[in-house]
Amino acid sequence: MAKPKKTARPKATAPRGFIDTPAAEMRATAAMIARIQQVYESYGFEPLDTPAFEYTEALGKFLPDVDRPNEGVFSIQDEDEQWMSLRYDLTAPLARYVAQNFERLPRPFRRYAYGPIWRNEKPGPGRYRQFIQFDADTVGTDAMTADAEICMLFSDTMEALGIARGQYVIRLNNRKLLDGVLEGAGLAGEAHAGTRLGVLRAIDKCDRLGIEGVRALLGEGRKDESGDFTRGAGLDLDAVTPLIAYIEAGREGRSATLDALRPLVEASEIGREGLEELARIDALLSAAGYEADQVAIEPTVVRGLEYYTGPVMEAELTFEAHDDEGRSVRFGSVGGGGRYDGLVARFKGTQMPAVGCSVGVSRLQAALRHLGLLEETAAAGPVVVLVMDHADVVRYQRLTQTLRRAGVRAEMYLGTAGMKAQMKYADKRQAPCVVIQGGDEIAAGTVQIKDLVEGARLSETISDAKAWREGRPAQVSVPEAEMVEAVRRVLARDDAEAASDAGDGSAAAHALTQDQG
Amino acid sequence: MAKPKKTARPKATAPRGFIDTPAAEMRATAAMIARIQQVYESYGFEPLDTPAFEYTEALGKFLPDVDRPNEGVFSIQDEDEQWMSLRYDLTAPLARYVAQNFERLPRPFRRYAYGPIWRNEKPGPGRYRQFIQFDADTVGTDAMTADAEICMLFSDTMEALGIARGQYVIRLNNRKLLDGVLEGAGLAGEAHAGTRLGVLRAIDKCDRLGIEGVRALLGEGRKDESGDFTRGAGLDLDAVTPLIAYIEAGREGRSATLDALRPLVEASEIGREGLEELARIDALLSAAGYEADQVAIEPTVVRGLEYYTGPVMEAELTFEAHDDEGRSVRFGSVGGGGRYDGLVARFKGTQMPAVGCSVGVSRLQAALRHLGLLEETAAAGPVVVLVMDHADVVRYQRLTQTLRRAGVRAEMYLGTAGMKAQMKYADKRQAPCVVIQGGDEIAAGTVQIKDLVEGARLSETISDAKAWREGRPAQVSVPEAEMVEAVRRVLARDDAEAASDAGDGSAAAHALTQDQG
Predict the structure, then answer these.
(1) Residue A490 buriedness (CB in 10 A; 0-12 / 13-18 / 19+)
(2) What angle do CA B513, B515, B517 make, to 5 degrees?
(3) Phi and psi dihedrals of A228, rounded to 5?
(4) For residue B204, how far is the Cα from the chain centroid?
(5) B2 by DSSP, 3-state: which?
(6) Residue A102 and residue A348 in contact, taking contact as beta carbons nearer than 8 Å
(7) Spatial CB neighbours of A407, under 8 Å, sequence gap ≥ 6
(8) B382–A contact, CB cutoff 8 A
(9) Which of A3, A19, A43 to mutate to probe the B interface, most B CBs <10 Å?
(10) Contact A380/A513 with Cβ under 8 angstroms?
(11) DSSP string of A386-452?
(12) If DSSP codes are grouped into helix, strand and coil, which group holds residue A141?
């Protein structure tokens, strides 16, 4: 092939922190999305899509990483000098949409949304700058029934994705409890805003650092294993004690946890309010049959986003797994949510209560794959029509179109190579069978259908090469007019075998491929 | 509700040129995507997703608007100083992907991709800065069978979307013919590159300006109705004459057009090559049964993107329609494609022939909607469980969960309003029926199911208010244990009616809702 003149060539790579998604993974994502969508739709949520860009001022600054309030987003200045940013979640755009369409939306307004979001963060292993979230939100009611439903939805979603009870837990808390216990520790008021933030961040690290680590961060500070010192919130013992008691208030059941929390927060009005809300959610969950292994109350759940005002929840994968080197792996949070009563008010000036949750699809998918739990759906590869005579391509094109029109996924071999390479191509494409029409077949008005799946199976049992060639196993000759029917018989047997081999998962994958094309 | 303190509030609006997609439209888009996907999959193409960003140098500068080679894309400088841009089509990222994964891809590699692309252009009515494209490409073969297949795929896609034969046409041409005729007009070689570009742009405007307009643009220039003057390519009559003959070479059939083109380009080698390629595609199309009303050869098709090297095609909607004010509306191009043998070579240094097409989903959807051809699928709204006693919400939550677990889309009313407002909410949500359980029903262990669809129908025939109230039409009382079954009976009747009212379209919409959730 001709070489173009040598100039500096661009690197063939996606920008750092961005990845491609090839076919098998895309089919797996589509299957996940369809399952989540089915749960969300069953709850009555309606789809909504908003664009990738929002005005920067509309998005606000709610990213978790409070050290860098101006970073974390991709922003661009438009020609009219206004700054726009790529959405970093699906909640801020929803708040803008509701404020914009306030008058004509049903109230409450229940919407779901999925799609990519972008975070301008330092990429690392498994840490990307574009990923998919799948959110559901109820806007326009402050009833705790809405919060309880989000917990149920979250739990149903995990189980719909094949994560069994006991392998995940929805961890529920209330920001108002945190406010109450901070008040009890003498940290109410504007003057202590910075300290409160430090305390919340320390509590948030409880899973990772353990109670002694948090105790150090609440006090003077903590030196980690590498010797690095993190300055603490600087609280004295009187303030630290109630906070530690709060952190340790988690019990086996939801009611028991609420009972343990009560004495720690009931001195404060906001604390009592938080307790009452959680008690209400607990009652609704219990009546609907959701137990503590599905939705637990966990005092250490903080959730980073500053806009949460009430109940917060987090979906966590709890099972341990081992990576290729046998090391223990925990995946932790695969989604979060909570109540954010002030977000729409940023635009409208009046409160518009709202609650919702977000499933991290990319993250969850990575976790499931790593654990071998993901259906890596073998694509139903196309039937490949071999080209036995490159001068007579029109003939093979016609056979191919006949198959396609009958609804059979089919390809004619488009290269210039011979028979052997064509068979190799068909294997690579995971073709269930190939269609062969050489000179003999043309003369006889027939085609040969070679079943590659059956052939592979038989090749394990027949060792005599001569018997193999003469017997032409897994190959049938039919009149050309019966080609479609014969191919369909092969596909039907493959489908049945795949379903009985792999159980429900693979059958679902085939159904997906057929429904969606 | 409490008013937060007054500060400058952000505007509740999406950035200019960006739009939201509410539920009905999203469902319509999903239905379109599913149909296109079904066609693409039947041809053996496999899905691929690439990220929104590419390195700017990897994308190259192939945007149609040659006046602004550095504009038209959204670009951002990363922290490591490298420039990244949002993809402006799905072809450039494919070229990067193929170059990056060259060794391990089947060859030819057939992939489809859909998703948003971004163009940093001046927004206007119906002109957005983010829209959806759906592409299919075959990389790694220069066989015209691949190009012929793209034409067939394009045609099949239009018809799968409900656009009848005669309402659309795939217009096929070859860049090599244009090169040949330019050579014939004495415009070969580097020295004439600028002039050639001007000529191509003039030819591209033939549809809009007519032959005399193009003649003016090939010569001195053209004054439009507003008096604005556009400078022409400055050709003399000897050069203009063969170009005009070329432009007018379109005939009724593909062979007739090729015959008319032959004397105009056969003096040039590249022209002969182009003719031969089109003749080959024509033979394949004819053998597969695609006629000239489906795929026509049209000498004036240029396609803007500079990377095309051979056959180019354009999907055009040909029927006239009328807008709300009775004005005639034509939608023109809803997709395009062609062969681009040099795009992968930008990275690899060796040629990697490729051909593909792109359907403008957003554009096509807008056209179909405008013409009333789009199924605006009425969502199957959720069953709404009314809250007759707000203190007893747990009871209604349980009824709702029972419905959801049985696979019925259901919602409990989450607001605080009374019966009348709840019925209004149910109407707004397009609920097929509501479930009512007041004190009497609780005592009797029953629920009332009120069929809103049937009720609306009956309300047109029953005018006696008293008879209406007493008869309780379209309302049944069943034991609570039979609620699911009774609701299912209502849904089944609604589905059957919708299918018989609206024919295939609505039934397909229901199927979509059910399959995808």
Answers:
(1) buried
(2) 60
(3) -70, 140
(4) 22
(5) coil
(6) yes
(7) B42
(8) yes
(9) A43
(10) yes
(11) --S-GGGHHHHHHHHHHHHHTT--EEE--SS--HHHHHHHHHHTT-SEEEE--HHHHHHTEEEEEEH
(12) coil
B121-147 pLDDT tens trace? 888 877 899 999 999 999 999 999 999
* Residue type present at position B336: G
**What are the b/e assignments for B191-212, b being 16+ CB within 10 Å?**
ebeebbebbbbbbbbbeebeee
H helical segments located in A161-268:
175-184, 193-204, 206-218, 237-247, 254-265
B472 φψ region: left (φ > 0), alpha (ψ -120 to 50), beta (else):
left
Residue A459 forms contact with B (CB below 8 Å): no
Q: What is the DSSP letter of B477?
A: E
Contact state of B284 with A80 under an 8 Å Cβ cutoff: no
Reduce the DSSP state of residue A177 to 3 states and report it: helix
Within 13 Å of residue A363, how many CA atoms lie on the same side as its CB? 20
Mutation site for A-interface testing, chosen from B3, B7, B11 by largest number of A Cβ within 10 Å = B11
The residue assigned the tokens 């049992």 is A461
Q: In B, residues 121-140, which contact A (CB 8 Å cutoff)?
A: 129-130, 138, 140
Q: 């609650």: which residue's tokens?
A: A355
The label of the residue with tokens 């415009």 reads: B187
- Residue A99's alpha-carbon distances to A351, B40, B462, B477, in angstroms, are 11, 40, 41, 41
Q: Torsions phi, psi of B192, nearest 5?
A: -105, 10
| C-beta atoms surrounding B438 within 10 Å | 13
Terminal CA-CA length for chain B: 36
Q: How far apart are CA B137 and CA B91, in angstroms?
A: 8
Measured at the CA of A467, the angle between CA A461 and CA A472, to 5 degrees, comes to: 85
- What is the token pair recorded at B432? 């097929």
d(CA A146, CA B414): 7
Does B391 touch chain A if contact means CB atoms closer than 8 Å?
A: no
Residue of B nearest to A38 (CA): B517
* Residue A183 to residue A177: CA distance in whole angstroms: 10
Question: Is some CB atom of chain A closer than 8 A to the CB atom of B323?
Answer: no
Write out chain B's pLDDT in tens, 517 residues.
Answer: 444 444 578 999 999 999 999 998 899 999 999 999 999 999 999 999 999 999 999 988 765 544 444 478 999 988 888 899 999 999 999 999 999 998 889 889 999 999 999 999 888 877 899 999 999 999 999 999 999 999 999 999 999 998 989 999 999 999 999 999 999 888 988 898 888 888 988 998 888 889 999 999 999 989 888 888 988 888 998 889 999 999 999 999 999 999 999 999 999 999 999 999 999 999 999 999 999 999 999 999 988 767 899 999 999 998 877 777 777 777 889 999 999 998 899 898 888 999 999 999 988 988 887 767 676 555 578 999 999 998 899 999 999 999 999 999 999 999 888 999 999 999 989 899 999 999 999 999 999 999 998 888 777 776 666 666 666 668 899 999 999 999 999 998 877 766 665 444 333 333 333 333 2
Q: Enter the tokens of residue B355.
A: 């051909």
Q: Which two three-digit tokens encode residue B208?
A: 């809009």
With contact defined as beta carbons under 8 Å apart, do B213 and B205 qualify?
yes
A376 touches chain B (CB under 8 A): no
Tokens of residue A506, six digits: 């693979």
Residues 6 or more apart in contact with residue B215 via CB below 8 angstroms: B240, B244
Listed in sequence order, the residues at least 6 apart from A116 whose beta carbon sits closer than 8 Å to its beta carbon are A52, A130, A131, A132, B52
How far is Cα B16 from Cα A8, in angstroms, rounded to an integer? 37
